[in-house]
């Protein structure tokens, strides 16, 4: 009799636990889906995870493991290869899109989609930055910044500065012994973007800013928990410090311009201070600072990481290294005797090195996701995206699709021989009106660095089997601890 009572009690407890789990797993659906009425039945498959945290735990668990793609794979296993899945991510009901047709539509349809970055990200990068402003404001500021950053004349001017610093850095690193290759590259690319925007080469200012940006980036992809000890809390403090530093720079520059209203534009800061709309309104300090926070961050992180991985993968694959080096040696042979520098024309005539860069961009997918928000109910690929829901364009799925890229986890620049990516299948810099405005500058920096590295240097990683981290960006855990060796005299 007593044994029977024990089994009854055990069954009741088990049933209660399962019942609570059933309720918790459906709580988000009741909160976010029921109010949609009939539209809920045309949502993509998926689940909204647990109350409050949604799918963030499984997302962070996957991206802190050795297999970040297991997050999306779990949806494919449970719901099939539908290409769109409903989730609750970063505090919002969202639709993840993973197929070219849907990604292309979301990124190019400005009438039905607007930026949808999480509130936590907006707090860190800035509500007046490119990721937060309206389409009209974005178009206006993009016109201002695109030519000074990506224009032919601007790139030609930056070439000498970039090349001088690359040559100097490689010579310095070759004499250093072991060092963190990624950390050194981040300092190099940060120096370049600081010069372009602020005409500054102050080591003290650069080191202070670079430290704060490191903390800021760790908070961008973390859970928005503003408590001491959490990445987001530290990132908010970094944001505050960055704003204070940039405010002092803006104040100094405004004071300087008051004393000489005819000062010629020398850098992006001058351009931002001088711009006026049709009503004579100039940018506020908040707008200028948020643009600086965003541009200086994006302008050095991506270039450094891509350069590191391109160098590492070339060094790991001698056949790719030799093919890339032969192309650079041919450039030197074709030069007139009096030419000592790399030119923009030479870079644009390269054929193999751009394939190496594109393959690196695909292989690491530096920005694995971007965020949009539906401005109205919209149907894509047979599914409804409700008004106000976020849309997560999942670049990793595009770049690692085996139907588009056979053996996608293999690094192989030769896959780009006689191949042009179909629309929506290769989006390292995004697509549409919000395409990354610094893409040409980034590729220029990477090309200049690889040109000189291939001709005269080799990289030896000290921990070649070091595990990779995927948040906030793909990198070796040891920041690529390595030795750079000079293997030939300078050819130029």
UniProtKB/TrEMBL annotation:
For this UniProt entry, the molecular function terms from Gene Ontology, in alphabetical order, are: ent-kaurenoic acid monooxygenase activity; heme binding; iron ion binding
Annotated signal sequence is none
Concerning Gene3D superfamilies, the annotation shows:
Cytochrome P450 (1.10.630.10)
- One CC-aspect GO term: endoplasmic reticulum
Note the topology in the membrane. Answer: Single-pass membrane protein
Instruction: State if Oxidoreductase is listed as a keyword.
Output: yes
Role: Catalyzes three successive oxidations of ent-kaurenoic acid giving gibberellin 12 (GA12), a key step in gibberellins (GAs) biosynthesis. GAs, which are involved many processes, including stem elongation, play a central role in plant development.
Name by which UniProt lists this protein: Ent-kaurenoic acid oxidase 1
The lineage is:
Eukaryota, Viridiplantae, Streptophyta, Embryophyta, Tracheophyta
